[in-house]
Amino acid sequence: MNGLIKSLLALTPVFCSLPLLFLGFDIASDNLGANPIQALHIRLGDWSLRFLCITLAITPIQAITRWRGMTECRQLFGLYTFFYASLHVLVYLFVDHNFMWSLIITDIIESPYIWLGVLAYIIVFLLGLTSSKFAMKTLGKNWKKLHRWIYLASVASVIHYFWQLKGNLTEPLVYAIIIVLLLSFRLLAS
C-alpha cells in the first residue's frame, strides 16, 4: 500500500501540470481562438475550479473507501488549486489590464461577479499560505477552522463563474452540482 501512495504522490504533480503544458502549447501555436485573453481566463479559472473540486472530493472518497492514503494528495491538489487560481488572477491583472489599477478598481466596482472571484481567491490564497506542517502547528485548532473556508471559496467560485457568463451555463451548472453534492456529503457526515 505504501508503494501505491508513493506512486500517487509522485504522479500527482505530473498530472496537475498537464493543463499548463497544454495551455503553453496552445499559446505557442496561437491556438486560443479569436479572444486569446478570454480563453486564458476561462481555461485557468476552469482548472482552478476543477482542482478545487478534486480537493473537496478527497474526504468523501476517503470516508467511502476507508482509505486514508490520499491526505497528502489532497494537499497537493489544494496547492495546485492555488497555483491555477493565481495564474487566473495574474492573467486578469497583467495580461488583461496591464496592472492599470484605476481600470482594475473600476472593473471590480462595476462587476459584482469579480467580488466573488476576489473572495474565493483570498480564501484560496490564505489556504495555500497555511498548508505547511509549520502553519498547522502554529495555528493549532484554528488551522482546521481556516481550512473549512474552502467550502465558501467553492460556492463563491461557482457563482463567480455563473455571473460572468452570458451564454451557455452548462459547465458552471456541472460544477455547481458537484459542489452541492460534495457539500451535502460534508453536512451529512458531520
Overall description:
The protein has 190 residues and is mainly α. It has one domain. It is 84% helix and 0% strand. It starts with a helix and ends with a helix. The relative contact order is 0.11.
Tag the structure with descriptive keywords.
0% strand, 190 residues, 9 helices, single chain, mainly alpha, globular
Q: Uncertain segments of ≥5 residues (pLDDT<50)?
A: none
The shape is: globular
Proportion of helical residues: over 70%
Going by helix content, strand content and strand pairing, the class is mainly alpha
The topology string of helices and strands comes to: HHHHHHHHH
Task: Set down the secondary structure blueprint.
Layout: H1 2-28, H2 36-65, H3 71-96, H4 101-110, H5 112-129, H6 133-139, H7 141-147, H8 150-164, H9 170-189
Helix pairs in contact: 1-2, 1-3, 2-3, 2-8, 2-9, 3-5, 4-5, 5-8, 6-7, 8-9
Report a brief summary of the structure:
This protein is mainly alpha-helical and about 190 residues long. The chain has helices spanning about 1-30, 35-65, 70-95, 100-110, 110-130, 135-140, 140-145, 150-165, 170-190.
